[in-house]
Amino acid sequence: MEYEGCFRLSQRQKYDCLLFDLDDTLYPYSSGIAAACGKNIKDYMVEKLGIEKSKLQELGNLLYKHYGTTMAGLRAIGYDFDYDHYHSFVHGRLPYENLKPDPVLRSLLLSLPLRKIIFTNADKVHALKVLSRLGLEDCFEGIICFETLNPTHKNNISDDEDDIASTRPEIFDIIGHFAQPNPNLVELPKTPIVCKPSEDAIERALKIANISPQRTLFFEDSVRNIQAGKRVGLHTVLVGTSLRVKGADYALESIHNIKEAIPELWESDMKSEVGYPGKVAVETSVTA
Ligand SMILES: [Mg+2]
Fold first, then answer.
1. Could you tell me the superkingdom of the organism this chain comes from (predicted)?
2. Alpha helix locations (H) across 93-173?
3. How far does residue 278's CA lie from ligand 1's centre (Å)?
């Protein structure tokens, strides 16, 4: 406080790390990937789990709302299935050809002098396919994906919640549950799946990648993931809209707008020191 000049000298980049969601964040929602994925999930529920078509919409909405992903919700209410099989079914037939190389984003990412990590609820095969299609496979230090936070449950016998879910003989009627007058009196079954927007999932991801939330900027298209990220201390950038919501520090219509919106990301530590104002600033602040 005494010498403003000293403060400025020690000032460094505000961020060490950029944490990016993948789907609908690094490419636009209009690609059609999300819509196709939603349809494939519904097909899986009917074809593989025997769920009635008439219940799909309401069930899907409730599971997504209360468990973060439909998959996490399906496991919570008692369906057991192979995670790899689920992912290959819902992602295997996606129109990946709609995703084209993005040299603009690639050069923006490569020019950023910060750690860059992907954090997605999707599986590794999907994440690699998307990054490869976008021509961004070498732009990130690592990928935190479904498998990172959910090692195959069959190899993880110490996971109590998992054991309960996989041996539950009946399916919990979540539609009936919310049709009751006081649904909050009964607790919903827990899911064994760890995924955004759970704060626990975000905290685990930060720990795995050795990330300090206070020094990290989190890019996401999902408002609830942004808000969960904010609760664990991340700085946040909502992508896909220019309307900033509660919990978002920035809002970008497209990830391509990153340089106009947050130019300070390109300022390195060296640059801050060059900007040291020296004697004048010291003299003016001494009297404060
Ligand atoms: Mg997303």
1. Eukaryota
2. 103-111, 124-134, 146-149, 160-167
3. 45
